[in-house]
């Protein structure tokens, strides 16, 4: 194997830069006394709740702008039969941030939660919180694994180094600075990484556009010029419109219930700042997607026979998912492609580090501390976090090496986050009277209806055939193998999400009526969700955090102590403002 020395040197320099910034952020946090007397574990999870506008906007944008985002956008634009019409991630995730900012950021930040799972454990109890942790963990782990796998493949194309080695080294760097500095290291490295993505890709685009093998992308947008390649604008065929809508709602609404998003929301200096950061990040998502769209269009406008890539197009080699690094390597000068490679590496790290931190935060707080060791000291929680950061990082790295299944696992787990966690989040924040029985019912209904639809990328056959299903023929161009897959054109993911939400509400009110009317004896309330609502199983608000009482101001930047007593937060009128009337957790609902 001939290693490209120049590319390897460029990658080493970039990785050292990221590592230095991560360590500096950790040192700055440790030596500046961010919040005197603050719990170290909460500093690792949500910083000092003092993330400012500049750093916050970058780290919030990095919630979704990662390796999968820039590579996937370019791939969809390039793919024959898909094109820009099917590149839904930029607008889908941008709208996700807008919706999150409008409806979810304020109630979550104003109540002083530390993780996304806090409101679930507060209302539904520690056992239900543990069940909801499973799809949340799966989503974070498989997302990290998928983007690390994409990075390994990218480096192997341009630098020609071993895939496994590149994945392991990249993961170790991200794990190290996350271990050292927590959210502060993640946030500050996000600033550097997004700058690198933006500059690296934009520098590459003019060189690729001016390559003699590339036709005018304005012409190829509407006219086919090359064999086996359709126009890159693409179109939505009538039979596929419901499937397109299903995927779009998956991105827009399913992009909200992720700890990677809420750890940024909860680290903002105020509820209003959290909203503003969400809106700025939505704009950032659109801007960061533009070079990827152009690179996909360039790939669709290229006569590959005139390039060093050869006469067979990336699509015919089953390398459509690699179109971005292929364009960088074969249509740009070597020094430009290496600069662009740094951008791709940056994109991957900006997602991998935050996902690993998110998973470890939820485990350390919601599983270890609140479910098993409520008396655990802050020092103990910090060590649990450090151990789980390393363990989850190692697991994500191991899964990244299983490239044959990791993408299918990511697709299925992200669907489960949308189908199960999103409707549960709606219930705990906006619907009065839901309880653990409804939550369990919603979980089961959502899981069965989604898994029943199958997952082609995992070769998981459906056992529920929704209206409009059809058999799709998939040809593997390299091996000439033909694979037949069941394609569900019905919007079954969104239907599953709605069924989960409605079943949660319906079963909650059903069991509430049965127990309160005496139809069912109190002894059958085995989940302690209706009759014994304030039992030890349903988390008392004071167990979610420590006993240092503060009031959070939604309208102005603040630097409060991190150990917030949620009991005080819910009782104090000034912290509730307009949330009091709509929140299912407000004191007026205690006697329901």
Automatic annotation (TrEMBL):
Organism, scientific name: Sinocyclocheilus grahami (Dianchi golden-line fish)
PANTHER family, per the entry: HIGH AFFINITY CHOLINE TRANSPORTER 1, HIGH-AFFINITY CHOLINE TRANSPORTER 1
One BP term from GO: synaptic transmission, cholinergic
UniProt KW keywords: Glycoprotein, Ion transport, Membrane, Neurotransmitter biosynthesis, Sodium, Sodium transport, Symport, Transmembrane, Transmembrane helix, Transport
SUBUNIT field: Homooligomerizes at cell surface. Interacts with SEC14L1; may regulate SLC5A7.
Catalytic activity: choline(out) + n Na(+)(out) = choline(in) + n Na(+)(in)
PROSITE patterns: NA_SOLUT_SYMP_3 (PS50283)
Role, per record: High-affinity Na(+)-coupled choline transmembrane symporter. Functions as an electrogenic, voltage-dependent transporter with variable charge/choline stoichiometry. Choline uptake and choline-induced current is also Cl(-)-dependent where Cl(-) is likely a regulatory ion rather than cotransported ion. Plays a critical role in acetylcholine (ACh) synthesis by taking up the substrate choline from the synaptic cleft into the presynaptic nerve terminals after neurotransmitter release.
Signal peptide (from-to): none
Family: Belongs to the sodium:solute symporter (SSF) (TC 2.A.21) family.
GO CC field: axon; dendrite; perikaryon; presynaptic membrane
Residue spans crossing the bilayer: 6-27, 51-70, 90-108, 129-151, 163-184, 191-209, 242-261, 273-302, 322-348, 383-410, 416-433, 440-458
Location(s) in or outside the cell: Presynaptic cell membrane
Membrane topology of this protein: Multi-pass membrane protein
Protein name in UniProt: High affinity choline transporter 1
Any one GO MF annotation of this record: choline:sodium symporter activity
A Pfam cross-reference name: SSF
């Amino acid at each position: 194997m001939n290693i490209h020395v120049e590319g390897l040197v460029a990658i080493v320099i970039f990785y050292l830069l990221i590592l230095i910034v991560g360590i500096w952020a950790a040192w700055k946090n440790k030596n500046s006394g961010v919040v005197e007397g603050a719990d170290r574990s909460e500093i690792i999870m949500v910083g000092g709740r003092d993330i400012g506008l500049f750093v916050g906007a970058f780290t919030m944008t990095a919630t979704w702008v990662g390796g999968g985002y820039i590579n996937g956008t370019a791939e969809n634009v390039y793919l024959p039969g898909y094109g820009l019409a099917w590149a839904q991630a930029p607008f889908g995730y941008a709208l996700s941030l807008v919706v999150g900012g409008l409806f979810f950021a304020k109630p979550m930040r104003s109540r002083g939660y530390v993780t996304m799972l806090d409101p679930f454990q507060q209302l539904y109890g520690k056992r239900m919180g543990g069940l909801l942790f499973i799809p949340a963990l799966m989503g974070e782990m498989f997302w990290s694994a998928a983007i690390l796998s994409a990075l390994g493949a990218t480096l192997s194309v341009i630098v020609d180094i071993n895939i496994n080695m590149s994945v392991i080294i990249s993961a170790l760097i991200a794990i190290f600075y996350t271990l050292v500095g927590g959210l502060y290291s993640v946030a500050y490295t996000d600033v550097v990484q997004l700058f690198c993505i933006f500059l690296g890709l934009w520098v590459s685009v003019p060189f690729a556009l001016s390559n003699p093998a590339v036709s005018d992308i304005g012409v190829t947008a509407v006219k086919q010029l090359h064999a086996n390649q359709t126009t890159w604008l693409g179109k939505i065929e009538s039979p596929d419109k419901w499937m397109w809508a299903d995927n779009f709602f998956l991105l827009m609404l399913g992009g909200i219930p992720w700890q990677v998003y809420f750890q940024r929301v909860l680290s903002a200096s105020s509820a209003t700042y959290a909203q503003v950061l969400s809106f700025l990040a939505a704009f950032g998502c659109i801007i960061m997607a533009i070079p990827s769209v152009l690179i996909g269009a360039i790939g669709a406008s290229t006569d590959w026979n005139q390039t060093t890539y050869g006469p067979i197009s990336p699509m015919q080699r089953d390398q459509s998912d690699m179109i971005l690094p292929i364009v960088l390597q074969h249509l740009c000068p070597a020094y430009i492609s290496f600069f662009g490679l740094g951008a791709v590496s940056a994109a991957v790290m900006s997602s991998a580090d935050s996902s690993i931190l998110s998973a470890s935060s939820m485990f350390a707080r919601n599983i270890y501390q609140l479910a098993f060791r409520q008396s655990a000291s802050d020092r103990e929680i910090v060590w649990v976090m450090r151990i789980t950061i390393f363990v989850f990082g190692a697991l994500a790295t191991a899964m990244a090496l299983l490239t044959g299944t990791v993408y299918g696992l990511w697709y299925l787990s992200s669907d489960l986050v949308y189908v199960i966690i999103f409707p549960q989040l709606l219930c705990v924040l906006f619907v009065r009277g839901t309880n653990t029985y409804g939550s369990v019912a919603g979980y089961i209904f959502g899981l069965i209806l989604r898994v029943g639809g199958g997952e082609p990328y995992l070769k998981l056959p459906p056992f529920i055939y929704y209206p409009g299903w059809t058999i799709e023929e998939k040809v593997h161009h390299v091996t000439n193998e033909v694979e037949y897959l069941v394609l569900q054109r019905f919007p079954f993911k969104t239907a599953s999400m709605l069924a989960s939400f409605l079943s949660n509400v319906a079963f909650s009110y059903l069991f509430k009526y049965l127990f309160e009317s005496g139809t069912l004896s109190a002894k059958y309330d085995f989940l302690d969700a209706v009759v014994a609502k304030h039992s030890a199983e349903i988390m008392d608000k004071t167990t979610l955090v420590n006993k240092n009482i503060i009031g959070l101001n939604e309208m102005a930047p603040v630097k409060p102590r991190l150990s917030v007593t949620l009991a005080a937060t819910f009782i104090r009128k000034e912290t509730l403002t307009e949330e009091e009337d709509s929140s299912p957790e407000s004191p007026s609902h205690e006697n329901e």
